[in-house]
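ok so i was messing around last nite and threw this chain in just to see what happens. nothing serious, just curious
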Amino acid sequence: MIYIGMDISSKSFMVHAMNEKKQVVLNEEIKPTRGGLKEMIDKLGTQTKLVVFEAGNQLKWIALALLKIPGVHIHV
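result:
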């Protein structure tokens, strides 16, 4: 399992991801787009992922985009 935390803003998303051994596997800024989310998830491989992010005005489209990707679960 990979645990992903995202800080959401209109200009970029800051992403921090850790594996089950608490090793950082990703720490970067991504584009605030569906493509940016997909690219970030693809970088992290095939393991199941839990994405945690804050509730805000972009919640709906982010949640819907992530839930379309197999192996991705979300928590808001």
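not much to say yet. The longest strand covers residues 2-8.
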